[in-house]
Design goal:
With 487 residues, this protein is an alpha/beta fold. It folds into 3 domains: 81 residues, Winged helix-like DNA-binding domain superfamily/Winged helix DNA-binding domain (Arc Repressor Mutant, subunit A, Orthogonal Bundle), CATH 1.10.10.10; 238 residues, Type I PLP-dependent aspartate aminotransferase-like (Major domain) (Aspartate Aminotransferase, domain 2, 3-Layer(aba) Sandwich), CATH 3.40.640.10; 110 residues, Alpha-Beta Complex (Aspartate Aminotransferase, domain 1), CATH 3.90.1150.10. Helices cover 40% and strands 13% of the residues. The chain is built from 16 helices and 13 strands. It has an 8-stranded mixed sheet, with helices on both faces. Strands 11-12-13 form a 3-stranded antiparallel sheet, covered by helices on one side. The radius of gyration is 28 Å and the shape is globular. The mean pLDDT is 92. The chain binds pyridoxal-5'-phosphate.
């Protein structure tokens, strides 16, 4: 806290000019405590330090602290003088002639969907990996090593496309594990998929351009596109993924097409090969770009691993998005976009002005985690664990809810969809009731995009954090709510 600034502002007010320095300091601290500038529990500087900072005698500071303590504003203790908790704070008076600020976001921002605060410990909260299983000790060691290896110049603004070692590690991994075709120069590091989506919306489309999104679809993508003033168009999803018609191409020509082909979010459908090829061909003809969000494909539980769309054809019109939120942990906030080679130079030019990067140590630690083989090892362990949890959840759902609902899309990832057979079921109301019982199971109908497409009814169930033994009891709670709603 800069007390010099606080004090000089206070002392400069004309009403206080004739006061002694002691009185000025006392009043200055008192009003800072009363208006919340200094909050309960904050430690005031040592008297000698503050005297030096303000250029006053130590006795002046001692007097002010003593007075504040007598009045109950501060409490002297072994750890120094601490601001006391006061029942009511007094808001600072508005400056004359200034009307109070009204918090009203732009109309564009108001159209962006919001979401509840993350509730990670709650059962079935989707999108969160098994945080307890993450090898924290190893990660700390790698971070420590990365910090020790940093050169002074790496504390400066960093390359806007990310650390070369991490870009190289990602390119190597994607070639082998996802069948992608790329050079490291095509990889741009971001702060996770949310950052990648915002970047794609900004760099590859203009306000008013149409962007297709699967419906039901990922609300995070919808939020990014609305924030960029694009026009989202919801597209039907069936068992083979997104299913646009010839009329859709004619009536709603897209600039961007957002898909989750390996494990559609939230239904879990896998985009079939004929549809992948068809989408690429149509996108080429329409001069559109496909955004392939490959968020959880590292976890494939049944059948052979699927390659990504990006690698299906040379120079496919695909922006490939990856994230470390599921394979590592969400708070890492690291992801990436792989752009077609022709876009590397223009995107670099744009980012050089708008997106200085940093956090070199995190990126270098992750690069080592990947290059040393620890990443693959961790993925193998997690795949085994998630498959067990998926099996336990599917078994409990089929046993307890098989007559009224069907499991959908459990072949990959860390969530599945439970689709209710009743197309009019009020899944949103049931989801609310479940929340009160400690279960977070978002309603599929709330994941719809626009009104064009008939909503799915049911729930999105994340199982990565739920232990096998807990499944039957949690599913019994879910079944109780569903069956009561039908009664
Ligand atoms: C479809 C989809 N894409 C991406 C992500 C990850 O986003 P981020 O990298 O911003 O954490 C999620 C997280 O739940 C998701 O569901």
């Amino acid at each position: 806290m800069d007390y010099q600034l606080l004090f000089s502002r206070f002392a400069a007010l004309p009403a206080h000019a004739p006061w002694s320095r002691q009185r000025q300091l006392h009043e200055c601290l008192r009003s800072a405590i009363r208006n919340g500038t200094l909050s309960a529990g904050a430690r005031l500087p040592a008297t000698r330090t503050l005297a030096q900072e303000l250029g006053v005698s130590r006795n002046t500071v001692l007097y002010a602290y003593d007075q504040l303590s007598t009045e109950g504003f501060v409490q002297p203790g072994q750890r120094g003088t601490v601001v006391a908790g006061l029942a009511a704070r007094v808001a600072p008076p508005a400056a004359p002639g200034h009307s109070p600020l009204r918090a009203s976001l732009s109309r564009r921002a108001q159209s962006v969907p919001t979401r509840d605060a993350p509730e990670t410990p709650a059962a079935f909260a989707p999108g969160v990996p098994a945080l307890k299983e993450f090898p924290v000790t190893l990660w700390r060691r790698l971070l420590d090593r990365a910090w020790r290896s940093l050169r002074t110049e790496q504390l400066n603004y960093a390359p806007h496309h990310g650390e070369p070692a991490l870009r190289e590690a990602i390119a190597n991994h994607l070639r082998v594990a996802r069948g992608a075709r790329l050079e490291a120069s095509q990889v741009f590091i971001t702060d996770g998929t949310q950052g990648s989506l915002a970047l794609c919306a900004q760099a590859f489309a203009d306000a008013g351009d149409k962007v297709w999104i699967e419906s039901p679809g990922y609300q995070g993508a919808l939020a990014a596109f609305k924030a960029a003033q694009l026009k989202p168009v919801g597209m039907v999803v069936d068992d083979e993924g997104m299913a646009p018609t010839a009329a859709d191409w004619q009536r709603h020509p897209p600039k961007l097409i957002y898909v989750t082909p390996s494990h559609q979010y939230p239904t879990g459908s896998v985009l079939s090969l004929p549809r992948r090829l068809d989408l690429i061909a149509h996108a080429r003809a329409a001069q559109a770009l496909i955004i392939e969000d490959d968020y959880d494909s590292e976890f494939r539980h049944d059948g052979p691993p699927l390659s990504c769309m990006q690698g299906l054809e040379a120079d496919a019109p695909v922006l490939y998005l990856g994230t470390f939120s599921k394979t590592m942990f969400p708070a890492l906030r690291l992801g990436f976009v792989v752009v077609p080679a022709v876009w590397v130079a223009p995107l670099s030019a744009m980012l050089s002005r708008t997106a200085p990067r940093g956090r070199a140590a995190d990126q270098l630690a992750l690069a080592e985690f990947m290059q040393s083989g620890q990443f693959s090892l961790h993925l193998r362990r997690m795949r085994r664990l998630y498959r067990q949890r998926r099996d336990a959840l599917v078994a409990a759902l089929e046993q307890q809810l098989g007559d009224v609902a069907a499991v959908h899309g459990g072949s990959a990832g860390i969530h599945l969809a439970l689709r209710l057979r009743d197309p009019h079921a009020d899944d949103a109301a049931m989801s609310q009731q479940l929340r009160a019982l400690g279960i977070v199971a978002p309603a599929l109908s709330t994941q719809a995009v626009g009104q064009r497409v008939q909503p799915w009814r049911g729930f999105l169930l994340g199982y990565a954090q739920v232990q096998v033994e807990q499944m039957p009891a949690l599913v019994a709670t879910l079944a109780g709510v569903v069956k009561r709603a039908r009664a």
